[in-house]
Amino acid sequence: MVICYVYFTRIIAILLRVAVPFQWQWLYQLLVEGSTLAFFVLTGYKFQPAGDNPYLQLPQEDEEDVQMEQVMTDSGFREGLSKVNKTTSGRELL
C-alpha cells in the first residue's frame, strides 16, 4: 500500500501533470490529495484496535509466577552487608 501510494503520487501524478493542458492542472492536486486521503483512511482502517488483540491482554498470574518473580528480583547484591553510622567525632557505630 505504501509503495503504491509513493509510486502514484511521485510518478503517475507528475506524468499526468505534464501531459494535461493548463486548464486541467488542478486535476494533479485533486489526485494527489485524494490519494493521500485514501491512503490515510485505509491505513487507519487496517490498523484499528481489535477486541481480541493478544498484545493488549493482561497476563493471568499464577502463584508459581509470583514466586518466580520474587526469586528473580532477589539478586543477593546486599547480602552480608550492614549499615555503618558515623558519629560527629569520626567513630563508627554498628
Question: Any descriptors?
Answer:
GPR107/GPR108-like; G protein-coupled receptor 108; 3 helices; 94 residues; mainly alpha
Based on secondary structure, the structural category is: mainly alpha
Write the H/E string, N to C.
HHHEE
Our Rg estimate from Cα atoms comes to 33 Å
Backbone shape: elongated
Strand content: under 5%
Q: Roughly how much helix do the residues carry, as a percent range?
A: 40-55%
Number of strands: 2
What would the average pLDDT be, to the nearest integer? 78
* Spatial strand arrangement across the major sheet: 1-2
Low-confidence region ranges:
none
Count of helix runs? 3
Give the terminus-to-terminus CA distance.
70 Å
Q: Report on the biggest sheet.
A: 2 strands, antiparallel
Describe this structure in words.
The chain is mainly α and 94 residues long. It has a domain at 1-45. The protein is built from three helices and two strands; from the N terminus they run H-H-H-E-E. It has a two-stranded antiparallel sheet with strand order 1-2. Helix 1 runs antiparallel to helix 2 (26-46). It starts with a helix and ends with a strand. The mean pLDDT is 78.
Q: What's a quick, concise take on this entry?
A:
With 94 residues, this protein is mainly alpha-helical.
SSE blueprint and pairings:
Layout: H1 2-19, H2 26-46, H3 63-73, E1 85-86, E2 92-93
